[in-house]
Amino acid sequence: MAKKAYERRPTPLPPSQRDENGNRILQPYIPVVGLTKDKLKGLMPKGTSAVVTDEVLTLINNMENDTGLPQDTLEGEVESYMHIMASGGTSLKDYVNAVKFCTLKRHYDVADAWSKVFPDRAHRLIEMGQEDAIPRHAYAFSTTKVATAIDKEMLIPAYLQYAPYYHAAIKKQFELLNGRSSSGANVTPMVEHLAAKELALLTAQPQEMTLNVTTSPSDAALSVQEEMNAQLKSLVSIQRDKLVAGEDITDVQVIGLDFAEVGMDRE
Asked: Where does residue 88 fall: left (phi above 0), alpha (psi -120 to 50 degrees), or beta otherwise?
């Protein structure tokens, strides 16, 4: 008796994903934004004594409202420079404020960036009639240890900052090319093919570059050239007249350019 083919039944959809006729309701993709305490603790370098408090968590998750910049961008910046905390001496709150400040400086001047990070302090200075002191406070914050470290990191080109990851990517593609995955299992021939293709791109020799340089003579050089051309034209006319008059050709062929008139030495 032939075995009956196994027929896989689809998993029924929960009521929240079905309409009245049982059809799937297409849900819009909503990116998950927001750092949790556990994720922040996992990002912090080992040995860091900074504490993740509810105040810091609220400060991070309200960064978009406080600055006007995209929340996911700011969260990415917070994650990117977390290794700076390994040096110690900086609270997590100060670090987050420094990340916000350094990121805002890409879009605003130093005083405006500081005012957005510390609106209460800026407002208090304005109420006291000391608005002119805001740039001084902003400069002082920009010279703090944590802000300086973040600024330096932001100035490093990405290809230099992530150079070790580039080599790690090449190594990973080489492992896949040879049929090995990170779990030790064999990969499919298609994965090997794609790894070989990517490895060829990563290790390709630089393409030949052609540099086109256009130069133009200076005004002084043009003036000299014009004067020499005028003298040559006059000389040709004089030589022609002498030849017509029957003078000896050896005397006529003597060239007599006056270099003093064209701004050049006779040397």
From this structure: left
CA distance 92 to 105: 20
Tokens of 12: 């029924």
d(CA 145, CA 84): 10
pLDDT in tens, 160-200: 656 667 777 888 888 888 888 877 788 888 888 888 888 88
Cα distance between residue 98 and residue 150, in whole Å = 8
Distance of CA 45 to the CA centre of its chain: 25
Report domain extents, the chain.
Answer: 37-155, 161-202, 231-267
pLDDT of amino acid 15? 58
- Distance from chain centroid for Cα 32: 25
**What are the tokens at 191?**
């994965």
